[in-house]
Known about the structure:
The chain is of the alpha/beta class. The protein is about 40% helix and about 10% strand. A 4-stranded parallel β-sheet has the order 2-1-3-4. The longest helix is centred in the C-terminal third of the chain and has 23 residues.
Amino acid sequence: MTMVLVVCTGNVCRSPIAEGLLRAAFADRIGPDVPEVVSAGTMGWTGSGAHPSSIRAAAERGVDISGHRAREVSEEDVARADLIVAMDPEHAEAFAGEAGSRAFTLKELVRLLEALPEVEEASLGRLSERIAEADRLRREGFEGDPMDEGIADPLGMPLDAFRAVAAELDAWCSRLADGLVGRTHVRAAPGSTGS
């Protein structure tokens, strides 16, 4: 099974929100047969729950992370991951060795994918190929926006900061799912007659 590993520092704020939002974005596009999406921290607060403001901000976006338990990223996680999505450049750099071709910041990967031809039909089938194409483009010198590669850490900030981070993650995770597996087909709302 395909596995996506989302990484931040403590695994209590950004990465649990991103994990939930990315899983939901994949489900919206390809249904229940989504990749396994997990999160961990480079200095994970092992056993801690997600920060209460992270739980609330995620819930306001339709994602329940109340059962999340923080953990530190393991060698097994890195070995199993088809893709490592980092919240900051320092997190991606932690995987620069053997896993470097599979490790990106969220924003970097989205920009790389958006520079490639779009996926024509929503499916999980080309995910590994899309990751390889993004890495190739990066190695060829695609710069993206090196001044804007990270997602701010809201730890110690008020609830509104967590809400802002959740909104930012929601937008970027949606774009990531579009770039990896294709866009959602527009569906009519229940009860609408269309026109």
